[in-house]
TrEMBL record, chain A:
Protein family: In the C-terminal section; belongs to the complex I 49 kDa subunit family.
Protein's membrane topology: Peripheral membrane protein
Subcellular location: Cell inner membrane
Name of the protein in question: NADH dehydrogenase (Quinone) subunit D
An annotated Gene Ontology molecular function: NADH dehydrogenase (ubiquinone) activity
Organism listed in the record: Candidatus Kutchimonas denitrificans
Keywords: Cell inner membrane, Cell membrane, Membrane, Multifunctional enzyme, NAD, Oxidoreductase, Quinone, Translocase, Transport
SUPFAM superfamilies documented for this protein: HydB/Nqo4-like (SSF56762), Nqo5-like (SSF143243)
Highest taxon above the source species: Bacteria
InterPro entries named among the record's database cross-references: NADH_DH_suC, NADH_Q_OxRdtase_suD, NADH_quin_OxRdtase_su_C/D-like, NADH_UbQ_OxRdtase_30kDa_su, NADH_UbQ_OxRdtase_49kDa_CS, NADH_UbQ_OxRdtase_CS, NDH-1_subunit_CD, NDH1_su_D/H
Domain NADH:ubiquinone oxidoreductase 30kDa subunit: 49-169
Oligomeric form and interacting partners: NDH-1 is composed of 13 different subunits. Subunits NuoB, CD, E, F, and G constitute the peripheral sector of the complex.
UniProtKB/TrEMBL annotation, chain B:
Cofactor: [4Fe-4S] cluster
Species of the source: Candidatus Kutchimonas denitrificans
Similarity-based family: Belongs to the complex I 20 kDa subunit family.
Localization per record: Cell membrane
Gene Ontology cellular component list: plasma membrane; respiratory chain complex I
Enzyme Commission number(s) from the entry: 7.1.1.-
Taxonomic lineage: Bacteria, Pseudomonadati, Gemmatimonadota, Gemmatimonadia, Candidatus Palauibacterales
UniProt feature, compositional bias: Basic and acidic residues: 167-182
Protein's name in the database: NADH-quinone oxidoreductase subunit B
UniProt region (Disordered), positions on chain: 167-224
Main subcellular localisation: membrane
Length: 608, 224
């Protein structure tokens, strides 16, 4: 284990610049000339480069190789409706220079086609499948372009297109009928079915009993076998389905099937006002709800160009770090159960119950907190709450030590985790592994350090990094992260300033009731906000925060109206899950449970 | 057993009468069977989303639902009595849920935990089942988003209460045949009815298909 403490100032070039002035963008323009169609700035003054769709791979390759954009953070679509072109958005990150770049290619909705970026970043694999599933964009050359969230034979269309109705095209009765008429065996891919029924029967081997063997029984010497795990299985941490091709006990290929919990959050968000989206966000990652609540609010505030109050910033940091602990605790409990140790689950759930109580004291809900509002929080913290948090972080490390004593030196635990599910640094970066998993592979990328928000640069904490990138390292990294979160909360508690929790801006936050009842302008402000909703200026932004599972990105687009045009949640679990096949390849079948547990997924956010 | 004063075989009668207090219990068969069923409900946790985390909390140390005879979480449907559907059910998941229900042997009960499972909740979208009672029969709905562990426990107690009122002779709650396998629970018209806005919260009793065989008492109301 080693760690970095790089919280020095981040060189972003010359601050806000005019379009095309950022050096790398200027270079791009000279190099590709007319293939760079235009360059704009988004709400955060970051460049958006529109490129010719037929040259996308060429340009992306150049960006990766020559300009150091080594991470593909997102590939998604954006449909404005009305027959306007569908925009395919690539969100890049250069980790050396700590710079983001958004590249967009516009394709006609009638025949949206692009070359795949899979050859450049393996991270594009699932992201492009999702863009295909939701927008119908076909990526030529993609190795496995199937629907990913919707059933493979889904016939109603592409859900995130603007002409697709919120409730689908068919009636509910028809949707129910179709769902139940689907044969469960149909949802194997053709390739898997081919393996399962492969004709391997050869001539009888002179045992003299050949006549008795019915011909339809598969031969025991059949080379590979298909094993289906899930979608309703206690060790998959939700409704995940893994189809594994086995050679004896060795995994030849693992195919995750997701989408069994697809809820349509992104579509639904387009039908809700900006503040109404907040209760949806905590239902995505219910293991760390406040991180989602606050991350979303931060994104919208970026679009609004709004700065929250100093008190709010510190309270938000406390909430987010508390939820990091909250999520890591359930991770350690369930992972230990999966590997055969039951006791840590009971210990960590005790601690979780204490955080539940803190949640409840603040928000009234144990899990679906909806704690943030755009421009502040739902309320100021109740009296005594901060002391309760302090008591928690003073006593909580004891449990952590106990759990560590149970596991860190435990021979079974070490045997099951060390050297299992290994991924190296370069591959992990390219394939979009994120969060503690990426750091366990030795890449010191943490949004809190690399692109700080909420003044994280002013807190003193370390980012733990692993050496081997195996299951054991992921465990160590998370244990250390909990300790660092305790450190951050300690510092935050010491500096909670007095003052208002919400911004004083009648366009954003409801005025206090005393003003609403006693003054006409207060009444008007209240009425306008309730009836018309919050107006967010036209524009778009990408905002990422470090959630407990990795980089959580919000790509928000507004057209100036009361509702979002697009709310894209780039969930870290989705990216981590897409790497499971690479992590378990060649391992034993029992390890699939350990590896799957170790990457810490939450299905609500994978499937959204 | 009638008292046998005039019975010629008086000696035998006396023996039986003295035996009864020591070795025998006389009870209605219904009571006995229901008592046994009630006291060993094994749940089949069908947890999908956020509600499943609260279900885990219910099973963990603080709330400990094993106290009520739910000692064993049956991860295989073939050895389970009550299916706890906790969380959102997408259409992609619906056939899986129905199959698990079909695989559970009778007698079986179903509890729908949370707003999403019961009505689709806030997610009236293209992918969500608008109430699992369109797919499987539901005995108890637990409201909440998510329901607190106490609420889930209360819901399970209500299932126990419901079992108390069931009769051996009444086959209706247990009627099930091979032709029902993988079929929706409701007719297309009823699916439309409950899927309309607010539908499932207003029509639940009417369409959930299972009449209770006796009025359900709340656990606190029991007079005994
Ligand atoms: S009812 Fe609420 S808590 Fe339960 S699954 Fe639905 S959204 Fe999640």
């Amino acid at each position: 284990m080693s760690s970095t403490t790089t919280s020095d100032n981040i060189d972003k070039g010359a601050g806000p610049v005019a379009p095309g002035e950022r050096q790398d963008v200027a270079q791009l323009k000279t190099k590709f000339g007319p293939a760079i169609r235009s360059i704009e700035l988004d709400a955060a003054d970051e460049p958006v480069v529109y490129i010719a769709p037929d040259r996308n791979t060429e340009i992306l390759q150049y960006l990766r190789d020559e300009q150091g954009y080594d991470m593909l953070r997102d590939v998604t679509g954006l449909d404005w409706g009305g027959g306007r072109p569908i925009q395919v958005v690539y969100e890049l990150w250069a980790s050396e220079r700590r710079l983001p770049l958004r590249v967009k290619a516009e394709v006609p909705p009638s025949n949206p086609r692009l070359q795949t970026a899979f050859g450049i970043w393996h991270a594009a694999n699932w992201l492009e499948r999702e863009a295909y599933d939701m927008f119908g964009v076909k990526f030529d050359g993609h190795p496995d372009l199937r629907r990913i969230l919707m059933p493979e034979n889904y016939e109603e269309g592409y859900p995130l297109r603007k002409d697709f109705p919120l409730r689908g095209r068919f009636t509910r009765a028809e949707q129910t009928r179709r769902a139940l008429a689907r044969d469960l065996e149909d949802i194997y891919s053709l390739e898997e079915l081919a393996v399962a029924s492969r004709e391997t029967r050869t001539a009888p081997r002179g045992l003299g009993v050949t006549a008795e063997i019915p011909t339809d029984v598969p031969d025991l010497e059949a080379k590979h076998m298909i094993l289906n795990i899930g979608p309703q299985h206690p060790a998959t941490h939700g409704v995940l389905r893994l189809v594994v091709e086995l050679d004896g006990e060795t995994i030849v290929k693992c195919t995750p099937h997701i989408g069994y919990l697809h809820t349509g959050f992104e579509k639904l968000s387009e039908y809700r006002t900006w503040n109404q989206v907040i209760p949806l966000t905590d239902r995505m990652d219910y293991l760390a709800p406040m991180i989602y609540n606050i991350g979303y609010a931060l994104g919208v505030e970026k679009l609004l160009g709004l700065e929250v109050t100093p008190r709010c910033k510190v309270i938000r940091v406390i909430c987010m770090e508390l939820n990091r602990i909250f999520s890591h605790l359930i991770w350690i409990g369930t992972t230990a159960i999966d590997i055969g140790a039951f006791t840590p689950f009971l210990y960590t759930f005790e601690e979780r119950e204490r955080i539940y109580n803190l949640h409840e004291a603040y928000t009234g809900a144990r899990m679906t907190t909806s704690v943030s509002r755009i421009g502040g929080m739902m309320a100021d913290v109740p009296p005594g709450w901060l002391d309760a948090v302090r008591y928690f972080i003073e006593t909580f490390p004891n449990t952590l030590d106990e759990v560590e004593r149970l596991l860190s030196q435990n021979a079974i635990w070490i045997g099951r985790t060390q050297g299992v599910g290994v991924m190296g640094a370069a591959e992990a970066t390219n394939a979009g592994l994120c969060g503690p998993n990426l750091r366990a592979s030795g890449v010191p990328y943490d949004v809190r350090k690399d692109n700080p928000y909420l003044e994280y640069e002013t807190y003193d904490f370390d980012v733990p990094i692993g050496e081997y990138g195996d299951v054991y390292d992921r465990y160590l990294v998370r244990m250390e992260e909990m300790r660092q979160s305790v450190r951050i909360i300690e510092q935050a508690l010491d500096r909670v300033p007095d003052g208002p929790i919400n911004v004083k801006d009648d366009r954003v936050i409801l005025p206090p009731k005393s003003r609403v009842m006693n003054s006409i302008d207060g009444m008007i402000a209240h009425f306008k906000l309730v009836m018309e909703g919050l107006k967010v200026p036209a524009g778009e932004t990408w905002y990422s925060v470090e959630s407990s599972k990795g980089e959580l990105g919000f790509y928000l687009v507004s057209d100036g109206g009361p509702k979002p045009v697009r709310c894209r949640y780039r969930g870290p679990s989705f990216m981590n899950m897409s790497n499971l096949p690479a992590l378990v390849k060649g391992e034993l079948v029992a390890d699939i449970i350990a590896v799957n547990a170790s990457i810490d997924i939450v299905l609500g956010e994978i499937d959204r | 057993m009638a008292k046998g004063d005039q019975d010629p075989g008086g000696a035998g009668t006396t023996r039986v009468e003295t035996e009864i207090p020591r070795n025998w219990i006389i009870a209605r068969l219904d009571d006995l069977v229901n008592w046994a069923r009630r006291g060993s409900l094994w749940p089949m946790p069908f947890g999908t989303a956020c509600c499943a985390i609260e279900m885990m909390a219910t099973a963990a140390s603080k709330y400990d639902m094993a106290r009520y005879g739910m000692e064993r979480m049956g991860y295989t449907p073939r050895q389970a009595d009550v299916m706890l559907v906790a969380g959102r059910v997408a259409y992609k998941m619906a056939p899986v849920m129905r199959r698990i229900w079909d695989q559970m042997p009778q007698p079986k009960w179903c509890l729908s935990m949370g707003a999403c499972a019961s009505t689709g909740g806030v997610f009236d979208t293209y992918t969500m089942v608008q109430g699992i009672d369109t797919i499987v029969p539901v005995d108890v709905y637990v409201p909440g988003c998510p329901p607190r562990p106490e609420q889930l426990l209360y819901g399970l107690l209500m299932i126990q209460e419901k079992i108390r009122g069931e009769s051996f002779k009444d086959p209706r709650p247990r009627a099930e045949g091979p032709e029902d396998v993988a079929k929706p629970q409701l007719s297309p018209e009823d699916v439309e009815l409950v899927a309309s806005p607010f539908g499932n919260s207003t029509f639940q009793n009417r369409v959930s298909g299972l009449e209770s065989s006796s009025p359900i008492l709340r656990p606190g109301d029991r007079k005994e």
